[in-house]
Amino acid sequence: MTDVWQKRYNDTYQGEFLNDSIILVRYEDGYWSKPYFDCGGGYIWMMTYITPFFGFKNNSFYFKGTSGIDIDLEKVDINQCPQTDGSKETNVFAGSHRCRMETTKCIPIRGLGFRRGSYRCVCKDSFYFPNVTAEHRYFFGTDVEHEYEKAKRKEPNSYYNSFACLPCAPGCETCVDGSPCILALNWVLRSIVLGIAGLIMCCIPILIWFTVQYREVKVLKASSPLLMRIILLGAFFLYCPQIVGYFEASVITCCLRFWLREIGFSISYGALLLKTWRISVVFRVRSAQRIKISDADLIKRLVIIVLIFAAFLSGRTIAGRPRVVKGKHTSGLQAFQCSSDWWDHSAAIAELLFLLWGVRLCIVVRKAPSEFNESRFISWAIYNETLLSLFLNVSMIFFQDPFPSNPDLLYLVVFIHSQLTTTVTLAFLFGSKAYHVYKTRGKEQQQQQSHSTMLARTGKFVPGSKSTTAVLSTFTSSGNPSAIGDKTEEGENESFLEKDIQEEFRRLYTQLELLKQRNMKLQAYKKHSKMKQHPSIKIRMCCKRLKDRKQYIYNASGICNQNPQNCSNGCGVGGDGVTFVAVVLTILAT
């Protein structure tokens, strides 16, 4: 490097400028010594920076010596912690700390000078200091270095047994001790609730057996046993969310709860509303033509309703899958539960509209005649479901943000709602039927046994030239055909009226046969005229009883309907009871 210099003699006189060439020494040309301890009197840690310098002679440079700078390290801090990402600072001590990296991290301490262990080991997130009562919740670097040196020399040490933090409770991002951060579910309460729900679910197979075993009993035959089993299937799905909700909330359990609830609702209450709709259609008919809506027709409509619900559920699962959200309990702990968004609100509104249509149908059929009051029980079930579902949807708002979360209370509320709706509905539908079967089963069996005995004894009186169906058709055509369409029970089962007519005639025939045998015994003690008159009186009494059962005979057969005064002449069939007995025997012929 060429430079200009001049000699200076004093403040006023300077020599002329002279050109000179020197070698410029850069920082990279120097050399840093290793840290060393000065034992020559200073007794301090030092480092020396040495640089060369050159001379110039005979138009050439030559090495002349070195120049060094001694640096006192006692006031220089050592940073043994790892360098941050992207740092370009030169630090030969970086990463030389002895913190347990599994649970702690190194934090440098300023102002301690040139000494090893100028750092502290602080617990990482999700870990806490073992001594929760300590004033300083970290490990000093000097202690860590000391124990590490003892471990290297294989001396007794506590390096591997100490200087490690403990993990926080599950779900805690930061903590100061081992206290839980997530609300623990009350498994005792949940187990009791699940046990009660399981016992109630076990009643569904019993009710299915009941509908199969007593399907020929009038009270079950009138209510369509097949539809009753479908309602039980839907009730089973409505109970299933209690099983799924027993476990901790997850995406799978949230999806299953939503699917089971909606599918069960569409099956169970869809069948109930369709039964009510059939009654309303038959009850409101004004024409003489009979309307036939079979169970198969209702099942087809029910399949359409279930498919609509399934399409909505599929769209929700694909486009807006339920999530598990984190809330806060009143105790400050975290609580996890299924999310509630506009998909859930849409499903609740759809259920409410569906039930409101059912309420309208119930109002229409409130005056419809029904022998076993099934329409009334269905109406009560629909009213109950509508009110309680509205209450549940409103109460669910208070279990979401910003309100405190309580999964156990939510599980209990859903259980109570399920029992007050589904269980009460099943009680309405099957309670009266079970009571009726219990009260009338013995009587019906006794009547059937007596009837079979009479048929065996009097089989010779039964002609076989004319079928029962043909005779029934004759009686129906002679009566009032339009009355058949006005009966709601016919709409529930298209063959119910005809079978009941046959059953009534069989009962009447049995009574007449008993009366005939009794009269044959009395022939030896009474006169011929009284013996002839007595059967006619009894026959008129039987006709009166037959007239009282107008749910089955009055509008169907026409007997004692068009001309009630003919009952005095053997129910309008003939002048004496013998002719009427012959007609009854003809009807029974098969």
List descriptors.
Rhopdopsin 7-helix transmembrane proteins; synapse; single chain; 51% helix; alpha+beta; 13 strands; 590 residues; 3-stranded antiparallel beta sheet; 4-stranded antiparallel beta sheet; rod-shaped; transmembrane helix; glycoprotein; 4 domains
Task: Describe the SSE topology.
Elements: E1 2-8, E2 14-21, E3 31-32, E4 36-37, E5 45-57, E6 60-72, E7 104-108, E8 119-123, E9 127-128, E10 139-140, H1 141-152, E11 166-167, H2 187-201, H3 203-213, H4 218-221, H5 225-244, H6 251-283, H7 295-319, E12 324-328, E13 334-338, H8 342-364, H9 374-396, H10 407-457, H11 468-478, H12 482-485, H13 488-492, H14 496-522, H15 528-548, H16 554-557, H17 577-587
Antiparallel strand pairs: 1-2, 3-5, 4-5, 5-6, 7-8, 8-10, 9-11, 12-13
Helix pairs in contact: 2-5, 2-10, 3-5, 5-6, 5-10, 6-7, 6-8, 6-9, 8-9, 9-10, 10-14, 14-15, 14-17
Bulk shape: rod-shaped
Element pattern in H and E: EEEEEEEEEEHEHHHHHHEEHHHHHHHHHH
Considering the protein shown, what is the CATH homologous superfamily of the largest domain? Answer: Rhodopsin 7-helix transmembrane proteins
CATH architectural group of the largest domain: Up-down Bundle
Report how far apart the termini are: 137 Å
Annotation field: number of helices: 17
The largest sheet is:
4 strands, antiparallel
What is the CA-atom radius of gyration, in angstroms?
A: 50 Å
User: Care to count the β-strands?
Assistant: 13
